[in-house]
UniProtKB/TrEMBL annotation:
Organism: Pseudomonas indica
Gene Ontology terms for molecular function: DNA binding; lyase activity
Catalytic activity entry: siroheme + 2 H(+) = 12,18-didecarboxysiroheme + 2 CO2
UniProt family annotation: Belongs to the Ahb/Nir family.
Keywords: DNA-binding, Lyase
Protein name as annotated: siroheme decarboxylase
Function (record text): Involved in heme d1 biosynthesis. Catalyzes the decarboxylation of siroheme into didecarboxysiroheme.
Annotated Pfam families: AsnC_trans_reg2 (PF17805), NirdL-like_HTH (PF22451)
Domain Siroheme decarboxylase NirL-like HTH, chain residue ranges per copy: 8-51
Gene3D superfamilies: 3.30.70.3460, Winged helix-like DNA-binding domain superfamily/Winged helix DNA-binding domain
EC numbers, comma separated: 4.1.1.111
Pathway(s) of this molecule: Porphyrin-containing compound metabolism
UniProt cross-references to PANTHER family, sorted A to Z: SIROHEME DECARBOXYLASE NIRL SUBUNIT (PTHR43413:SF1), TRANSCRIPTIONAL REGULATOR, ASNC FAMILY (PTHR43413)
Quaternary structure annotation from Swiss-Prot or TrEMBL: Probably forms a complex composed of NirD, NirL, NirG and NirH. All proteins are required for the total conversion of siroheme to didecarboxysiroheme.
Amino acid sequence: MELDNLSRRLIERFQHGMPLCPEPYRAMAEALDCTEADVLDRLARLQAEGALSRVGPVFEHRRAGASTLVALSVPEARLEQVAARISQFPEVNHNYRREHRYNLWFVLTGPDRAHLSRVLDEIEAETGLMPLDLPMHTAYRIDLGFPLETLR
């Protein structure tokens, strides 16, 4: 996929920190010297093309309430369907496929541990799969930014 100049600048400038203000897309547009509609259009296109999966914050879990890493062992024939359902939970930050018996991993964040337990129970009831609950004991910050010069 070829990125146009505005899309490239948008990703390079904001993959590490959206403006924390009431109108973040307008602030992004001002920083990029374009319109808010241009920013929203580029984000929608990038998402439709599969180059962008999500726009939003990732919270420090201890400040946001409770968080846990979860893994599911999903039969291959059901993987897309289960992943799509998992993505619908507002508590899910992201999910991803792994080459392992536990092939679907995701992070749950909620107001407290009891809330997370209820969501895990709901996921088990809906999917018939037993979630492997992996609460974090030690936090590590990993910068997941990607330099775009390698995508030219």
